[in-house]
Specification:
The complex is a heterodimer of chains A (about 280) and B (about 400). Chain A has about 280 residues and is an alpha/beta fold. Chain A has helices at about 5-10, 25-40, 60-70, 75-85, 100-105, 105-115, 135-140, 155-165, 190-195, 215-220, 230-240, 245-260; strands at about 15-20, 45, 95, 120-125, 145, 150, 170-175, 205, 225-230. In chain A, helix 2 runs parallel beside helix 4 (about 75-85) and helix 5 packs across helix 6 (about 105-115). By secondary structure, chain B is of the alpha/beta class. In chain B, about 45% of the residues lie in helices and about 20% in strands. In chain B, the strands form four sheets. In chain B, strands 3-4-14-9-10-13 form a six-stranded mixed sheet, sandwiched between helices. The termini of chain B are far apart. The chains are: A alpha/beta (about 280), B alpha/beta (about 400). The interface between A and B is large, with 41 and 35 residues.
Chain lengths: ~280, ~400
């Protein structure tokens, strides 16, 4: 059983965190990942920084800029995966990348290196199923799950095509737009989760715009098996760039608070509307 | 060949959220290109509003100096001052047929932004134009012109703050507003079906030029030259000639020289990569990160090129050459003085190559240069480069 399958078999719903390799610096990035894991992230997405991250909003784009500015390369991202794997042997790790990074390296080599570093899955944000034949055989050869995305705009026919190829879990994009925090999640979330749930047994994780404990609770209530938080955590790195101790405290506090949204009100006195600022 | 592919190039490398919009766009395009009402209305706008057809001007002074017969295809005389309006009128009209209520566009030098603002005003659609912060300063006059035409200019402060970041910002807007918004992409780049739509709307240039040169000379030209940034004016004039025995030459931005590393010559010096939705030639580093580019002509200052050009390069059907900033500036002055026509700095790259290529033609040889835009927008820049002396 893969680490991803094992996680979703043990836990429901799971909390998925996101960080850009090399943000805020190459070594500091390992400390960020470690803090996130120690604070309770069940699965970590590690992005390879890229010059033109069109699917990302301003917060994550700036993280890509910081990481590239620090000189982070795909090699450094693989090295980070290796080190995080050493720190957390059982934790599922997913590499999040734009396709040109893979194209430039060659898909066979990319998936081989991802597997050797200890990654369990690869999510290619700008490779829709129409074009994914270019990587599918290599992901399979090296035993890497391909995490595919379904958007609110994806037609039922395309949902079927995507689900035929997906493995590990399915990433449901909660809204039309790029990554980034929102005041509220779209009201039709339950509908989206339900519509995809009818078509697959794979775990469903919801991301984009999820940034507050009440969002996490809403995603869990919608029947998702996982909730993905990116920008809300990345923003804390940016805000505390001059004080690493405060950065780690802020990350740990935020993850603890967000995770509480997964549990349906264990203690009624917890202020449900407390914001992660 | 797979739909949306030019040889191996092209494709749809976009986030999943955009796929439905690309599918809708493709379906609409297939429908409207067969719709007589669409053709009738587009034809009206092109002829009665934009000023088509544009002349194919025989340049007697330049022909005498160069020793061959030189013609200019005068896209500089199109309303707005460049070929861009062919595409923006076509796509804006398509957006109307799709029931979209808002246009967004990217712009580098501002020509496509101005052409979109014009089309939006003419067709009654609000326009927002994303423009790199650096470019809003370099091209302040065009930013003002867009606002005068009723468009809103949105400065983009991310990345290199130039054209590629403006495209990224426009794609992000589109992803968030698919229902009501049409993204009016300005060149034959990006995911399918944009390269094909832009090529088809720009092909009017080559169709007219073909008819005009046959009327005038009774035969096809020997050589056609056009500048290539994204490549829309070049594909527009080349496409109706690809099956003819005519030499086609695309001229890229050589910047400070191909050896300097400061240029925009993605076909001459790039490698194959995926960028902003398409597989094509790309100026990139060993890891696949897009490189910064340079050209005196803002419209050629871009790290990638349309996928159809990538195919035409590989097949050898089109030859791609580079012209430096200095050569383009010399051609800018040469054409101004010889013929009384001030070319856009982008188009001056094609003129500069023509000055070189004329040596290979005899006195009866026919050379057509696509003069894709006029140089009024560049006059202040060139004046400051030359310390105020013409």
């Amino acid at each position: 059983m893969s680490r991803i399958d094992d996680l979703f078999a043990r836990k429901n719903p799971v909390f998925i965190g996101f960080t850009v390799a090399g943000d805020p610096g190459i070594e500091a990035s390992l400390r960020v990942a470690t803090t996130m894991i120690d604070a309770g992230v069940d699965l970590l997405e590690i992005a390879i920084p890229y010059s033109d991250p069109v699917a990302d909003g301003p917060v994550i784009e700036r993280a890509h800029v910081r990481a590239l500015g620090a000189g982070t390369t795909p090699d450094d991202a693989f090295a980070l995966v290796r080190e995080v794997r050493g720190h957390a042997p059982a934790l599922p790790l997913v590499l999040f990348t734009y396709y040109n990074i893979i194209h430039r390296r060659g898909a066979d080599r990319f998936f081989a290196e991802a597997a050797a570093a200890g990654a369990d899955g690869v999510l290619i944000v700008d490779l829709p199923s129409e074009e994914s034949g270019e990587v599918a055989p290599y992901a399979a050869r090296h035993g890497i799950d391909r995490i595919l995305l379904i958007a609110p705009t994806t037609s039922p026919e395309r949902q079927h095509a995507i689900l035929r190829e997906a493995s590990g879990f399915v990433y449901l994009i909660s809204l039309e737009g790029v990554t980034g925090e929102r005041d509220r999640l779209p009201p039709n979330l339950t509908g989206l989760v339900g519509a995809v749930r009818e078509k697959t047994d794979l775990p469903l994780a919801v991301g984009f715009g999820v940034s507050r404990p009440e969002h996490v609770a809403a995603v869990a209530a919608a029947g998702a098996n996982g909730v993905i938080v990116g920008s809300a955590l990345v923003r804390l790195i940016e805000e505390h760039s001059s004080d690493e101790t405060a950065m780690h405290e802020a990350l740990a506090t935020a993850i603890t608070a967000l995770r509480r949204g997964l549990v349906p009100d264990p203690e009624p006195d917890i202020p449900r509307r407390a914001r992660i600022e | 060949m797979k739909a949306g592919r030019y040889g191996v190039y092209g494709g749809q490398y976009v986030p999943e959220t955009l796929m439905s919009a690309l599918i809708e766009l493709e379906e609409t395009y297939e429908r409207v290109r067969e719709d007589p009402e669409f053709s009738r209305r587009l034809s009206w706008y092109l002829h009665e509003y934009a000023g088509r057809e544009t002349p194919l001007t025989y340049c007697s002074n330049l022909s005498r100096d160069l020793g061959c017969r030189v013609y200019l295809k005068r896209e500089d005389l199109l309303h707005g001052g460049a070929h861009k309006l062919n595409n923006t009128l076509g796509q804006a009209l398509m957006a109307k047929f799709m029931g979209k209520r808002r246009l967004i566009a990217e712009t580098g030098a501002g020509q496509h932004g101005v052409a979109t603002a014009i089309a939006g005003a003419a067709l009654g659609l609000p326009v927002e134009v994303y423009m790199g912060e650096v470019d809003t300063r370099r091209q302040a006059l065009n930013a003002f012109r867009m606002e005068l035409l009723g468009a809103r200019v949105v400065p983009v402060a991310s990345g290199t703050r130039t054209l590629k970041d403006a495209i990224n910002a426009a794609m992000r807007d589109w992803v968030a507003n698919l229902g009501e918004t049409h993204y009016l992409l300005g060149s034959c780049v990006g995911p399918h079906p944009f390269p094909r739509i832009v090529r088809d709307f720009q092909s009017v240039i080559g169709e007219e030029a073909r008819r005009q040169v046959l009327e005038r000379e009774g035969r096809l030209p020997d050589t056609i030259v056009a500048c290539v940034g994204g490549g829309s004016n070049a594909i527009g004039i080349f496409y109706p000639f690809v099956n003819d025995d005519v030499a086609l030459v695309g001229v890229e931005a050589g910047g400070e020289g191909l050896e300097s590393g400061r240029h925009g010559a993605s076909l001459s010096r790039g490698s194959v990569g995926v960028f902003q939705g398409a597989l094509s030639y790309l100026l990139q580093d060993g890891d696949g990160q897009a490189l910064e580019t340079h050209s005196v002509a803002a419209g050629l200052d871009h790290p990638s090129v349309g996928p159809e050009h990538a195919m035409l390069k590989d097949s050898g059907r089109v030859r791609y050459e580079a012209v430096t900033d200095a050569e383009a500036l010399a051609a800018f002055r040469c054409l101004s003085r010889t013929e009384g026509i001030i070319p856009a700095l982008e188009s001056a790259h094609a003129v500069a190559y023509a000055l070189r290529a004329a040596d290979d033609l005899d006195r009866d040889g026919i050379l057509v240069v696509n003069l894709s835009g006029r140089g009024d927008k560049d006059v202040a820049d060139v004046a400051s480069l030359h310390g105020g002396t013409a």
